[in-house]
Amino acid sequence: NKNKIIVLTTAQKKYYSSFFDEKRMTVIGNGRDLTNSVEDESLKKKILLFKSKLSDDTILLGSTSVFLKIKGLEQAIFALALLPKKYSLILVGDGPEMGYLKQLAKDKELIDRCLFTGYHENNSCFFEYIDIFLLTSYSEAYPLALIEASLHGVPSVVTKLETLNQILPSNLIQFYNIDNISELVKGIYLL
């Protein structure tokens, strides 16, 4: 129906209701069919090799996205610098910020505790290996990676964005204020 306006979240509906008649709007969340996904053996091998170099009590943090400034992934590296050595980080993806993030990990002397896998079209197996998912974005409409983490039972620490408040139950999620690294670390500890 050309008279309908579709939004992804109730937060978006609330925002756009000042521009459009709310009765015309419908919330339809994004989705992804995981039943037909083929496991990426290359990604799996990279993760297993990385894990083989870590101690058995290592807690793996992880995130997956296009590496853009808006994703705030440097916050994960800053948090890792404040966490004990039993914490490590896996970042799945690629993009303009890749060089910066790798250099930051080197500068913070964390490169041995970080795995940068590069881009993988099907990264679903990644969620099987991490203990905590990090969503450090400055803005998100409807983060599919966060939904996928929850489908795998992986708890998440995410930025306090209005669009994210309605997505997951509170037992699977800890919120922190953007760029507040001590809150991010606290959220990790609480999970």
Strand content: 15-25%
Average residue pLDDT: 88
- How large, in whole angstroms, is the Cα Rg? 18 Å
Major beta sheet, strand line-up: 5-4-3-6-7-8
What sequence of helices (H) and strands (E) makes up the elements? EHEHEHEHEEHEEH
How many distinct beta strands? Answer: 8
How would you sum up the major sheet?
6 strands, parallel
Number of helices: 6
Which structural class is indicated by helix and strand composition? alpha/beta
What's the arrangement of secondary structure elements?
Elements: E1 5-7, H1 10-16, E2 25-27, H2 41-52, E3 59-64, H3 74-82, E4 87-92, H4 98-107, E5 114-118, E6 132-135, H5 144-151, E7 156-159, E8 173-176, H6 181-190
Parallel strand pairs: 1-2, 3-4, 3-6, 4-5, 6-7, 7-8
Helix pairs in contact: 3-6
